[in-house]
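Dear colleague,

Thank you for sharing your sequence with our group. We've completed the structure prediction you requested, and as agreed, I am returning the results in plain text so they can be pasted directly into your records. Please verify that the sequence below matches your submission; if there's any discrepancy, let me know and we will rerun it promptly.
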Amino acid sequence: MKVTTKGQVTIPQEIREMAGILPNSDVEFSYKNGFVLLKKITGTTSRGKKIVDRIKAQTKLTMSTEQIMKLTRGQ
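Please find the predicted structure tokens below.
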């Protein structure tokens, strides 16, 4: 198996199935004792969740969902 110029590899289907890695699954890589480890992330610790939480913490939104929807619909 080769790594592409973008650093990408294809995880073999058998490994994905054993690990429960589905399309759009969040995974993380780590390096320990000379081995590269791939781990499926479950729960709320995913990278995407962390990014959303960080953005939410920086946002001071005072509009309700209904007000936002009116703006987007042009009402």
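Summary note from our side: The longest helix spans residues 47-58.

Kind regards,
the structure core
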